[in-house]
Amino acid sequence: MKGEDVANRVWEVTEAFGSKCGKFGGAATVEIVRESLAKEGISTSVRDVFIKGIPTEIDLIVPRPDARPSVGGLLYEVTDVAAALEIKKSGLYGEKSLRAVRDHFNLLGRKGVRCAYLSIEDRQTYRYRATPKNLGVPSVYTLYWNLRSDAHFTTDWEGLVGFLRAAARVRK
Fold it and tell me: Are 26 and 47 in contact (CB under 8 A)?
């Protein structure tokens, strides 16, 4: 599977629904990424989950094989988490959004959780775009750079898949 396939599926589904409902776009994006990771052999949680003792919602978790979440699959122990993902359809919007994701990752990182950020598309020239430096984590992936003169797909999907496979192999 390629990142281009994932991005095209997100755009196809969200455009069919229309641009009036951002919540649908976000939910659909996470579900499509979840399905795509399953095709890569990477198990994930349901979307919008939590880690016990950490008061923040997580888009997706890659659980350890022996994880036993509670509350209908919504609540994990920190030791059950191989990686946590923040997923955006169109990147971050402004300094406030960037700071919120960075603070979220810092909180998770202090508990020993590996974090990754995935954007389906973003603008390389945007001042508040997600970068390893801006988010404080090395695992930042974008599938499509939307540039007026040079829009193009990346190979970041392969990088994300590699990161998640490696994280799932590491035991605490």
Answer: no
Task: For residue 120, give the DSSP letter.
Answer: E
Contact, 96 vs 134, CB < 8 A?
no
pLDDT in tens, the chain (172 residues): 899 999 999 989 988 776 666 788 889 999 999 999 999 999 999 999 999 999 999 999 999 999 999 999 999 999 999 999 999 998 888 889 999 999 999 999 999 999 999 999 987 767 778 889 989 999 999 999 887 667 788 899 999 999 999 999 865 4
DSSP 48: S
Structure tokens at 141: 């992936």
How is the chain split into domains, by residue range?
A: 3-169
Residue 72 tokens read as 């209908």
**H-state helical runs in the chain:** 3-17, 22-39, 94-110, 132-135, 156-169
CA gap 43, 24 in Å, rounded = 23
Token pair of 155, please?
A: 């190979």
pTM of the shown model: 0.92
